[in-house]
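Quick one:
INPUT:
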């Protein structure tokens, strides 16, 4: 308790000493001057310098402490947290010093953790194989990692350079990809030394200013591996389908020859009909693969949606859900018709009732959303993840091209396609096309 009130004791002692000294001096002056009221006025005035000296001396350590506190606060503001204070008296000022030192320790630990995170993040950014460029509103490169320096700066630093100057020294394919806008893939080099890259662009605000982040990822090796795996799968599928058709054809041809040799002509039409059926199936199989491999660029034109939906409805049964006068869209009629007919056919083959198969059409601010809906069994997670890949099929005799072809057509139009299970059962194939 005594430590807590040491400042009050100091003030009390000084006040008492000043009062006693003033009284003693007043008595002495009264005896000398024989005028009490003059003595009472003069005594305190004479002792004021002495009181000021003692008060200043008593407060000198506190004044030093306050200057030290102001100095450490200024250091904290400048980001220097290496200072601490010491105060030996265990009073209110001692508690203030302890709290101040604890604050400094906390700020120092936070700063150290922040520096460690920054070092970790910088290490990850610098050593990622993805080339990263951060460009400011004035088209100046703010940051470029090691991969960006190697790809666009001949191994030299690119920070501070004009992004337009860097593009002038870059391959034409990269410039074309940036002019097109958005994300995309481009190829650099000739057929013998071809490199494939994926470009991703993101904009955000940094310190109140708009910046753009460009990510360039080399996909050559990955796509080569995927290409090999795809070709292997294509070969397996084609070999399986050819064997399933050619083996019965060869067997039936041999049986037909035996029937002719024996003169049993009445059984010959059945054998020939089976051969014809297998040959036509094989012809359709090859035709589907050829159509997928040779999909031409879409011939976009203005098409009346109402008339287009009516043409679809004349070929396959479905329920239409959309505005009676939807307006005009821009797409390749033949390709989109083929795409939606395949999707509607799949919906009918899903086990859904015919009246539950629906085609939905909605106008969005900058696009059209087309949905093919059914109430079949839907898809599990594994099938959803792979259903849009070429040659992936869960059907016994499926080619795995229907949904892949729909995806190719949607993306060729600048749109996208997605699959999702419906609440209550069934599947929704959602396609978005530019308006």
């Amino acid at each position: 308790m005594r430590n807590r009130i040491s400042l009050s004791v100091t003030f009390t002692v000084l006040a008492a000493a000043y009062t006693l000294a003033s009284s003693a001096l007043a008595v002495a002056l009264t005896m000398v001057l024989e005028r009490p009221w003059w003595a009472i006025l003069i005594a305190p005035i004479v002792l004021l310098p002495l009181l000021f000296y003692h008060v200043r001396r008593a407060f000198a350590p506190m004044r030093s402490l306050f200057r030290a506190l102001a100095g450490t606060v200024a250091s904290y503001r400048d980001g220097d947290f290496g200072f601490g204070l010491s105060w030996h008296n265990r009073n209110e000022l001692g508690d203030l010093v302890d709290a101040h030192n604890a604050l400094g320790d906390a700020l120092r630990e936070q700063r150290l953790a922040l520096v460690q995170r920054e070092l970790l993040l910088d290490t990850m950014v610098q050593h990622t194989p993805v080339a990263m460029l951060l460009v400011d509103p004035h088209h100046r490169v703010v940051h470029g990692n090691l991969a960006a320096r190697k790809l666009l700066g001949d191994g030299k630093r690119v920070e501070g350079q004009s992004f337009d100057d860097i593009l002038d020294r870059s391959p034409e394919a990269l410039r074309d990809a940036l002019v097109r806008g958005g994300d995309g893939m481009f190829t650099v080099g000739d057929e013998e030394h071809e490199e494939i890259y994926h470009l991703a662009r993101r904009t955000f605000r940094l310190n109140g200013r708009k910046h753009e982040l460009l990510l360039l990822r080399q996909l050559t090796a990955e796509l080569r591996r995927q290409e090999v795996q795809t070709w292997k799968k294509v070969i397996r599928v084609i070999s399986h389908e050819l064997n399933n058709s050619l083996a019965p054809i060869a067997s039936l041809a041999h049986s037909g020859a035996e029937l002719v040799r024996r003169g049993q002509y009445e059984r010959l039409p059945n054998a020939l009909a089976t051969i014809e059926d297998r040959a036509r199936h094989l012809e359709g199989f090859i035709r589907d693969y050829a159509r997928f491999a040779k999909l031409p660029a879409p011939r976009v034109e203005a098409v009346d949606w109402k008339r287009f939906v009516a043409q679809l409805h004349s070929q396959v049964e479905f329920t239409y859900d959309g505005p009676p006068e939807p307006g005009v869209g821009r797409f390749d009629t033949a390709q989109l018709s083929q795409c939606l007919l395949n999707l509607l056919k799949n919906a009918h083959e899903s086990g859904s009732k015919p009246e539950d198969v629906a085609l939905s059409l909605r106008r969005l601010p900058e696009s059209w959303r087309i949905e093919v809906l059914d109430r079949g069994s839907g898809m599990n997670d594994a099938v959803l993840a792979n259903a849009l890949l070429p040659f992936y099929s869960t059907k016994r005799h499926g080619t795995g091209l229907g949904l892949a072809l729909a995806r190719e057509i949607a993306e060729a139009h600048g749109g996208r396609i997605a699959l999702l299970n419906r609440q209550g059962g069934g599947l929704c194939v959602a396609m978005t096309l530019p308006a």
